[in-house]
UniProtKB/TrEMBL annotation:
Ranges annotated as spanning the membrane: none
Positions that bind Zn(2+) 2: D251
Gene name as annotated: PDE7A
Stated family: Belongs to the cyclic nucleotide phosphodiesterase family. PDE7 subfamily.
Protein name as annotated: Phosphodiesterase
Matching Pfam families: PDEase_I
Gene3D superfamilies documented for this protein: 3'5'-cyclic nucleotide phosphodiesterase, catalytic domain (1.10.1300.10)
Keyword Metal-binding: yes
Residues covered by the PDEase domain: 134-456
Source taxonomy: Eukaryota, Metazoa, Chordata, Craniata, Vertebrata
GO terms, molecular function: 3',5'-cyclic-AMP phosphodiesterase activity; metal ion binding
PANTHER family linked: CYCLIC NUCLEOTIDE PHOSPHODIESTERASE
Listed cofactors: a divalent metal cation
Reactions accelerated catalytically: 3',5'-cyclic AMP + H2O = AMP + H(+)
Length: 478
């Protein structure tokens, strides 16, 4: 770990004074305006309850704008989002600049007498797009992390904190920049920015697992796979654009319950998609809806646009875990025959599908400290579903009963029946240091969970849960 990865983080090289910290629950400014270079603090503190400092650890990371404080025009979502960033900047950047990068009056807070101080990095030239999501002070920390965005031990939870909960938008913008996709596809940066904010907001932040941080984690993993020599030497920029877009959007608007829940509760999505890949179809259609809403690809010829949308769908649909065996058998048969040719676009597409599938369930292959956090989150979501099922007198879905199922047992089963078979094939295709690292973490994590598992719970029961009901429709070859 590098120094820059460690908390606590002070955005300024000066401590927040005790008397400021003591004014919790209000806008807490120093009584000396020189500290933040702001106007009369007594005026500002009239807006009590708007911003608060947390605890006495003297880190300003916790400062948040808790409500909306200006009116907005057609840029509604984007503007509200930006305001939160602006107020952080305003608090901590003793800058005298006062510019709205969008040239849009609605970005200015009405209640404050002073105009916003906006850092030049927010002025959004495409080359600095990533910084649009960060204020100058967090940028140092988050930027430092982004230098290692291709590391398998990238801590997405820390990155999410450093970006004020904007990990998905920040990371994706960074990858678009890194690959030069803005120039290659002549993308409008404001539309791109708006699209990234829209997708981030479309994830449900109250889902313990299926939220924007999971999407950011999958996007980071996807980037690691795209960087593997076999892929990086053969993928086209279109493949890369699709790979990143699919990873970022693959669980859009996930309701926090699984397909069987939607079917048994007669959810309209289940009938809309005829009980087939219900969630994945919805993620895909939501992604297309947001792409069109933001107008990100509207400058492309209709045929190219619709081709991109269809390929995006084919990637997202591949993440339906209940169809894992179909994809795995197809992939395995190519590996057995050694006939994958990455000059062939259909083969490249299959490899992208497999890469996305690996990225989606790679959390058990992360270092233990990260992996166990994901295990806790995914189980919490399963158990929440089980609680709702119990409450409504429905049969509790497999793995969703907090009275019967345990994290270690679920993990042991998931790793054995779902993750290992997939990553074993992936390593056959891509026998690189990364693949070995992932399988080595997987082995260690499985051993950890095995030690904690309850041996009285039959393994066969878990095999049933994973292979027959919850995930896999055909028994797996292990
Ligand atoms: N660590 C885990 N333990 C158990 N199930 C998991 C784990 N990680 C992912 N999953 C499941 O695998 C599924 C892959 O697709 P989803 O992201 O839609 O939903 C995911 C979860 O249902
Ligand atoms: Zn997912």
């Amino acid at each position: 770990m590098e120094v820059c990865y460690q908390l606590p983080v002070l955005p300024l090289d000066r401590p927040v004074p005790k008397h400021v910290l003591s004014r919790r629950g209000a806008i807490s400014f120093s009584s000396t305006s020189s500290l933040f270079g702001g106007p009369d603090p007594r005026k500002l503190s009239q807006r009590r309850g708007g911003i608060s400092y947390d605890s006495a650890d003297q880190t300003a990371l916790y400062i948040r704008m808790l409500g909306t404080y200006s009116v907005c025009c057609g840029w509604l979502d984007t503007c509200l989002y930006l305001q939160c960033i602006y107020i952080d900047l305003w608090l901590f950047t003793p800058s005298t600049e006062s510019v709205s990068p969008w040239g849009c009056r609605c970005c200015r807070p009405l209640s404050f007498q002073r105009r916003l101080a906006v850092s030049p990095s927010l002025l959004c030239p495409s080359s600095r797009l990533t910084l649009c999501f960060l204020d100058d002070d967090y940028a140092g920390q988050a930027k430092c992390m982004l230098r290692k965005v291709g590391s398998w031990d990238f801590d997405i939870f820390l990155f999410d904190r450093l970006t004020n909960g904007n990990s998905l938008a920040t990371l994706t913008a960074h990858l678009f920049n890194q690959y030069g996709l803005i120039e290659l596809f002549q993308l409008d940066v404001i539309k791109l920015y708006r699209f990234l904010v829209l997708i981030q907001e479309d994830y449900h932040s109250h889902n313990p697992y299926h939220n924007a941080v999971h999407a950011a984690d999958v996007t980071q993993a996807m980037y690691c796979y795209l960087q593997e020599p076999q892929l990086s030497s053969s993928l086209t920029s279109c493949d890369i654009l699709l790979g990143i877009l699919a990873a970022a959007t693959h669980d859009l608007d996930h309701p926090g319950v699984n397909q069987s829940f939607l079917i048994k509760t007669n959810h309209h999505l289940a009938s809309l998609y005829q009980n087939t890949s219900v969630l994945e179809n919805h993620h895909w259609r939501s992604a297309v809806g947001l792409l069109r809403q933001a107008g990100l690809l509207e400058h492309l010829p209709v045929e190219d646009r619709s081709n991109l949308e269809m390929r995006l769908g084919s990637l997202i649909l591949a993440t339906d875990i209940s169809r894992q065996n179909e994809y795995l058998s197809q992939f395995r048969s190519h590996l057995d025959q050694d006939d994958l040719n990455l000059q062939n676009s259909a083969h490249r597409h299959l490899v992208l599908q497999m890469a996305l599938k690996c990225a989606d369930i790679c959390n058990p292959c992360r270092p233990w400290e990260l992996s166990k956090q994901w295990s806790g989150k995914v189980t919490e979501e399963f158990f929440n579903q089980g609680d709702i099922e119990k409450k409504h007198g429905l049969e509790v879905s497999p793995l969703c009963d907090r009275q019967l199922d345990t994290v270690p047992n679920i993990q042991t089963g998931f790793i054995s029946y779902v993750v290992e078979p997939l990553f074993t094939e992936w390593r056959r295709f891509c026998s690189t240091p990364l693949s070995h690292t992932m399988l080595s973490h997987l082995g260690l994590n499985k051993a950890h969970w095995r030690e904690e598992s309850d041996p009285s719970i039959s393994h066969a029961a878990f095999e049933d849960s994973f292979s027959l009901v919850h995930f896999i429709d055909v028994p797996l070859r292990i």
